[in-house]
Amino acid sequence: MLIRLYESAAQQAFDLKSNEPEQIIENVEQTHLALTQAQCSEAISIQSAVLSAVEMAEKAYSSKSGITGVPTGFEDLDRKLGGLQNSDLIVLGGRPSMGKTALAVNIAVNAAKYYESANEEKSVLFFTLEMSKDQLANRILSASTGIPVASIHRGDMKQDQFRTYVEATQAISELPLYIDDRFHIDSRAAFPVKTLVKRARRHCKNHNTGLIVIDYLHLMQSTGSAQADQNRTVEISEITRALQWLARDLNIPVLVVSQLSRALEQREDKRPQLSDLRDSGSIEHDADVVLFLYREEYYLLRHEPQRHVGETQEKFHNRYNGWHENLAQQHNIAELIIAKHRHGPIGSIKLHFDAECTRFGNLG
After folding, report:
1. Is the full-model pTM beyond 0.85?
2. How far is Cα 101 from Cα 106, in angstroms, rounded to an integer?
3. d(CA 226, CA 188)
4. What is the mean pLDDT of residues 275-287?
5. pLDDT value at residue 261
6. Tell me, what DSSP letter sits at residue 265?
7. Are strands 359-362 and 347-354 parallel, antiparallel or unpaired?
8. CB count in 10 Å sphere of residue 39
């Protein structure tokens, strides 16, 4: 098998018209890795499995906080999940403007702060497929300082704010957090998941990585070049399986952001459901945890009541007041729905959301 693999690679190398060198190398690495995994993978005895289960149970029992995985920094979420568990694929879904990227960034930073404060020699790797590292860094600094992102971008800061901003850069720069934005600067519209997996593996060899965050799923593709006849459902399935395998193989949690279908916009209740996961049911199947982000305030702001034809002023006034009271109650409130949890119960929690500073926080 190895002989055929390298013979094929050599043949492709002679024909560089249709094959780029980097692509050939990637194919060889992926196939070689798969062969190695297959050779090294053996069935284990029930005794080994039981001992591993006991170790996990002992860790959970001795943990005073109840957190056995990577802390997200959000108390209610950590209480329900026990933190982000090793080998889990966690999908964070939501419609545009719900704050998915902001929450993913917040979790990554909180995990990095935990590693630093606990003196754990671990790090967080953040793949940003949509924003540049500079844009992401400004989001992190905005969330850390409370200075609106727009003010940072415009340079519209007072002297004391700028001083706070500069001081925060020192603290943030010392966090064990790595950003990979090489996909963002690529000219292609989508990015091969196998390239991302390869880069993740190489990074983890050089840095003791405890968490990988990817923003986001639908900017990836399963092959090196997009194919017009490629079934997107099949392609998404291949991507989620690759990410699931990455989490299992590295034995760390992998958090990936996902878009949701527009279909939910047609419903009266726009809270996301598992069926809203875009393009493929395999996302739901492969994920160990599925989280949905929902903000009622977003929809209320876009549906300010208008007076109907023939409606009395009093009736409209009462209806408008009801809308305004509901809007006030939902101000800066986000709902994080645990729609799937392979290791425990589902449910939902409430978070505080500051849109100007793109930061989430514990409520109350």
Report:
1. no
2. 8
3. 9
4. 83
5. 87
6. G
7. antiparallel
8. 8
Of the candidates 183, 259, 191, which has an alpha carbon nearest to the alpha carbon of residue 223?
191
SS3 assignment, position 202 = helix
| Average pLDDT across the chain, whole number | 84
Which residues lie closer than 8 Å to 145 by C-beta, 6 or more apart? 161, 164, 165, 168, 357
According to the model, what pLDDT value does residue 220 have?
Answer: 87
Q: What is the CA radius of gyration of the chain?
A: 23
Q: Mean per-residue pLDDT for 184-197? A: 71
Amino acid identity, position 206: N
**DSSP-assigned letter for residue 217:** G
- Output the pLDDT for position 187: 46
Q: 69-293+336-362 in CATH: which number?
A: 3.40.50.300
Answer yes or no: are the C-beta atoms of 70 and 83 closer than 8 Å: yes
Task: Tokens for 189, please give them.
Answer: 């519209």
**Residue 341 CB coordination number (10 Å):** 18
Q: Where are the domains of the chain?
A: 69-293+336-362
Indicate the DSSP class of residue 263.
Answer: G
